Amino acid sequence: MTSAQVDEGQDGHKVAVAADAGTAGEGYQRALGARQIQMIAIGGAIGTGLFLGAGKAIAKAGPSLVLAYAIAGLVIFFIMRALGELLMYRPVSGSFSEYAREFIGPFAGFVTGWTYWLFWVVTGITEVTAAAQYMTFWFEIPQWVSALIFTIILYGVNLISVKLFGELEFWFSMVKVTAIVGMILICAGILTLGFSDAGDTASVTHLWADGGFFPHGIKGTLMTLQIVMFAFLAVELVGVTAGESKDPKTVLPKAINTVPWRIAVFYIGALIMILSVVPWTEFQPGVSPFVAAFQKMGLGIGAGIVNFVVLTAALSSCNSGMYSTGRMLRDLALNGQGAQFFTRLTRSGTPLIGTTFSAALMLVGVWINYQWPGDAFTYVVSFATISGMWAWIMILICQIRYRGLADRGVLPQSAFRAPGAPFTSVFALAFIGVVIVMMGIDKDTRISLYCAPLWAVILGVSYLVLKARDPENKAFAKN
């Protein structure tokens, strides 16, 4: 039987039974507490996209980047509330692929599960490689050695227990949060008290005085949307933890409802402070705005601090990748859309084969990056953004479908309804559409749109082969 038992609804729609447990037959342990879920949710919204990618975005958009983050943050909140509504209807570890399978069809679930798995494998490859590069700041050791050590450690953590994964992610997130809060407080002190080398020139007028709020026009701001959305990728990871949360119906809504203030403080607040202390014209692409700000302040230890924080962010992302890939492969296998050996769990309830397979691919990716660090690898990495956004698209479409069925009485109403839906979900879909158009216009990100059809063909052929081999498999039956 698949990971979710089903029954026929009033209009033939297959609905989940035992929505209360959600993972009663999956074998996972509910070991993630409220403290860990909250920090996983916070950490998912803070990554290298903010610590490093914001430098390029500032150079493109100037102070108007603050507005881009605010609008994108609102869209992310709509996405998370849509996910929350689905999670409270049926909290399952398979999350996005489970909902796509139920509300759209088996092929949608197949594509979503494998695409989200690929997203985290690619992200894990880039992040563990980046972490190895950051280590060279302090130690003269071969990059592949650090990458190997980090991968083995995180792999071991994810196999020992989900509780250990959650604890490690808690402290990773704590480092990132502390760094941003510390930066905001330092900048606030400079603006009010005038200390440090930046004290004489620091002023909120930098937000509009150096070429205006839109120094490169509206187009410049629009062209940063893909960078902004990339920074928010992984915020949906909290949905994957649903099957292993101690009290999902209490913890998950609280974690999702913190999205607005997380974005307001960690993104908008931090950027306003940094751009007030350092004029936007002094930031350069490829240079962390946090490092640039510390240098402007005359704080020599800033580079080392930021390097440690970015190292933490990279390891956090890789840790999350190890966690989610194993569960996505197991969900696919439980639903007959992946190899059955991926269903195997350790005694502590972690997906042994799925996590091992994904970790092995991450090691292969590190080797490829070591051997051929040129454009081909960069092109593969660029696919991460579009594949990550696919999960958001599926969440929104599934929420619209679910809301329609729930309003007609076919399915039970969720205890955590998304406000303004389905209109907010439609708006979020339209916004993602604009981002994809911008990615097509920008030559640096256009390659990701070329990769997407190729991946779609691979999945389509694979699906047809699996279906032909086992035509009686209910995993390929239409809802």
Instruction: Give the proportion of residues in helices.
Output: 55-70%
Number of discrete helical segments: 19
Q: Give the uncertain stretches in residue-range form.
A: 1-12, 15-25
N/C terminus separation? 16 Å
**How many strand elements?**
2
Q: Note the run of SSEs as H and E.
A: EEHHHHHHHHHHHHHHHHHHH
The description of the largest β-sheet is: 2 strands, antiparallel
Strand order of the largest sheet: 1-2
Overall pLDDT level: 82
**Radius of gyration (Å):** 22 Å
Structural description of this entry:
- The chain has 479 residues and is an all-alpha fold.
- Helix content is 67%, strand content 1%.
- It contains 19 helices and 2 strands.
- The chain has helices spanning 34-44, 48-51, 54-61, 65-89, 96-103, 106-135, 143-160, 162-193, 206-209, 217-222, 225-232, 248-257, 259-277, 289-297, 302-334, 352-371, 375-407, 423-441, 446-469; strands spanning 6-8, 14-16.
- It has a two-stranded antiparallel sheet.
- It is globular, with a radius of gyration of 22 Å.
- The two termini are 16 Å apart.
Brief account:
The chain has 479 residues and is mostly helical. The protein has helices at residues 34-44, 48-51, 54-61, 65-89, 96-103, 106-135, 143-160, 162-193, 206-209, 217-222, 225-232, 248-257, 259-277, 289-297, 302-334, 352-371, 375-407, 423-441, 446-469; strands spanning 6-8, 14-16.
Task: Name the features.
479 residues; two-stranded antiparallel ribbon; 2 strands
